């Protein structure tokens, strides 16, 4: 059953893939091309409250996700932000950072925060068609751990 944070970020339409304990979803607002949310499925509102299994699986998810995002987005850096100010379920915003603009499906992605912190409020808000295309493209090259 999806938790409120998964639903807020468009579950199931935005889901790239899921593991036993994590959901990998396209972030509809894209401060960097290929931005995702990585949401824990456990009922936890603090990082330290996650089970050892969730921590172990997180490592495997990140290790498998980064090469796929690199291939898709050609990022220069990658940021993981755990803010949890509005959405209480444990989750990360995964923001591929790029010095130069990227284009996908007719949409141009400019990293407005480069080289500083990501500008989370900037970037295109993807429509359903572009979310589906991005989800399909990333799912095709990501191998679940």
TrEMBL record:
Keyword Signal: no
UniProt xrefs under InterPro entries: HIT-like, HIT-like_sf
Entry keyword set: Hydrolase
HIT domain residues: 12-99
GO molecular function: hydrolase activity
Pfam family, one: HIT
Protein name: Diadenosine tetraphosphate (Ap4A) HIT family hydrolase
């Amino acid at each position: 059953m999806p938790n409120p944070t998964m639903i807020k970020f468009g579950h199931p339409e935005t889901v790239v893939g899921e593991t036993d304990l994590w959901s990998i979803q396209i972030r509809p607002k894209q401060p960097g091309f290929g931005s995702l949310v990585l949401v824990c499925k456990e009922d936890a509102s603090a990082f330290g409250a996650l089970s050892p299994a969730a921590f172990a699986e997180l490592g495997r998810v990140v290790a498998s996700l980064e090469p796929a995002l690199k291939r898709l987005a050609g990022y220069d850096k990658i940021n993981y932000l755990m803010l949890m100010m509005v959405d209480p379920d444990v989750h990360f915003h995964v923001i591929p950072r790029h010095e130069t603009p990227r284009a996908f499906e007719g949409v141009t992605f400019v990293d407005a925060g480069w080289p500083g912190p990501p500008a989370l409020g900037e970037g295109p808000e993807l429509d359903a068609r572009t979310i589906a295309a991005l989800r399909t493209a990333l799912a095709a090259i990501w191998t679940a751990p």
